[in-house]
Amino acid sequence: MQSILTAEVAEKFLADEYGVHLEDFQFLADDAAVILARHHVGDDPFSPSLDLSGLQSLSEESATALSRYEGPSLRLSGLRQLSPQIAAILATFRGSLVLDGLEELTPETGKSLSMHGCYLSLRGLRSLDEDSAKALSTHGSLVSLRIPRISQEVGRILATYPSIEIFLTSSEENSEPQYGDPNRIRVCLEIHGYKNAWIVLGECFLSEYPDLFRTVHQFAKDLGFE
Predict the structure, then answer these.
(1) CA distance 125 to 99
(2) pTM for the whole thing?
């Protein structure tokens, strides 16, 4: 059954943020988005941000309202597609933007998202071509990707990003180990002065390459990070 997040539900969330699970809703009424944007996180560091990961679509009106939210992050991982127009609106949000549901990124949408100035998560992308990578390259903060394979040409482009985090795993679903998994190793590579690149190797990737140290640095070199 499809559920709509109405203005009434949004008001209940403002009154008790732990009593309403926003991620359970698939659609968002425009007037509800305006109300949600008033959500005040306050001084509690554990207070939840706006997690609307269940939404399957988003209107320009709702995107505009949510972009004015002053909390630390906005999660919209249920969106499978994102137009350049909606992306441009969301890019004005001044917090972390999580769009892990996107499987493809067009150059036009990438260009719109490049205007975003905070952490941007696109861990649902199945692939990334050169044009889209170039379009996103002017993003001013950390971009987080989780992609099974990256071409050498795209790697060289990613190496020019101000800050990039790449999760390399096998192409199988849910192959990435959890944060506490000892086989999940994170490697930081210095690129272009003060710019940083993070490469996270999943367990499935590590099993193919037992000589981790040599493999990581050779991989980085091949992609243009060194």
Answers:
(1) 10
(2) 0.78
